[in-house]
């Protein structure tokens, strides 16, 4: 019982205290996603500024467009190609970064008529200012009187935060898959309707021709003399 009340007291203290200088204890993971239309015969490039010893993860999917494929490449601030894909519908790439602007491009120049709808997500890890994660300890004097150490609470909070972030990333990816599958099903639905209508028209025309030919066989046009 004493252990439980100690946990509650520490959590309340964390909520009402000024933690503006303690936020460095959490490793910030910045997530962003974007969906855009890539016209046929075009290439679109994006830039992301990164810090040294950080991590950049990019995941992309082609949601709609003939072939569901696109060319992709990722280059470093010095211009070196770090990753490349050719005519793929999706991909995931993770790189350890140096300081500078990273460039990633989606290329649809191989297609002359089909535009592509592309979704991509960026996950940036270790983008903090390099503050010592242990600095928060100097703000928590007297925590040694508690049965549960504050370090354990911080580890638990970090673990929950990381899992929630991962859950959000998975949900975003699943939404992109759902959008791509829905577009594919709608395209198949339109094709089935068009070909079904075409078959019905052809069958009606063939039926009319057959009836006409059968009637012409039994229609005696010769004149009888009396």
TrEMBL record:
- Signal peptide segment: 1-24
* Claim: Thylakoid is one of the keywords in the record: no
Give the protein family.
Belongs to the EMP24/GP25L family.
- Which residue ranges does UniProt annotate as crossing the membrane? 194-214
Membrane topology for this entry?
Single-pass type I membrane protein
Which Gene Ontology cellular component terms are annotated?
Answer: endoplasmic reticulum membrane; endoplasmic reticulum-Golgi intermediate compartment membrane; Golgi apparatus
Q: Which residues does the UniProt record annotate as the domain GOLD?
A: 43-124
Q: Does the keyword Protein biosynthesis apply?
A: no
Keywords for the protein's UniProt record, in alphabetical order: Endoplasmic reticulum, Membrane, Signal, Transmembrane, Transmembrane helix
Protein species of origin: Ameiurus melas
* Name by which UniProt lists this protein: GOLD domain-containing protein
List locations, semicolon-separated.
Endoplasmic reticulum membrane; Endoplasmic reticulum-Golgi intermediate compartment membrane; Golgi apparatus, cis-Golgi network membrane; Membrane
Pfam families linked: EMP24_GP25L (PF01105)
Question: PANTHER family under this entry?
Answer: TRANSMEMBRANE EMP24 DOMAIN-CONTAINING PROTEIN
Q: Which domain of life is it from?
A: Eukaryota
